[in-house]
Design a protein that fits this description.
mainly beta; binds copper (II) ion; ten-stranded mixed β-sheet
């Protein structure tokens, strides 16, 4: 038997043992691993022209999970607080307001984009600079969360 074959035989023996329950099972992945079926892409934060003012976070969300969810909360690293906003008509004016929870079901695709639903980051740390990155986390009903990287852009950059 050559060395490679011998190693393979050893590995095989180890796997067989654990399959029989001789070694403790791996603990279940923590909730931080994400929301099954959720994919978030194209995430970017656009800083306010005036430092310290709220910054907007935009991203594309695709959901292909079996469980129906509602998206209602989020966090942004480097911001004291964050909340989802939408635009609506109030007092005969189109203005920004708090977003109602968004239901998610299998096959849904939602764009969080300028002039529509977006995530607003409040009290943004001066450490968040154009060209850098931060992280945002979306939280759904039931408390499952998914964290994703967010590119930071200056106020005048393409959104
Ligand atoms: Cu807003």
């Amino acid at each position: 038997m050559n060395a490679k074959l011998f190693a393979a035989a050893l590995l095989g023996a180890t796997c067989a043992l654990s399959a029989c329950g001789e070694s403790p099972e791996q603990p279940a992945a923590p909730a931080a691993a994400g929301i099954p079926g959720m994919k978030i892409s194209n995430a970017r934060m656009v800083l306010a022209p005036v430092a310290g003012n709220p910054a907007a976070v935009y991203f594309d969300l695709a959901y292909d999970g079996d469980q129906a969810l509602a998206l209602n909360r989020a966090e942004v690293k480097g911001a004291k607080s964050a909340m989802f906003h939408d635009y609506g008509d109030y007092n005969f004016q189109r203005q920004m307001m708090e977003m109602l929870p968004v239901p998610l079901k299998k096959g849904d695709k939602i764009e969080f984009k300028p002039g529509a639903r977006h995530l607003m980051a409040m009290d943004v740390s001066p450490d968040l600079k154009p060209g850098g990155t931060t992280e945002a986390t979306v939280i759904v009903s039931g408390g499952a969360r998914q964290t994703f990287p967010v590119e930071i852009r200056a106020a005048g950059d393409e959104r």
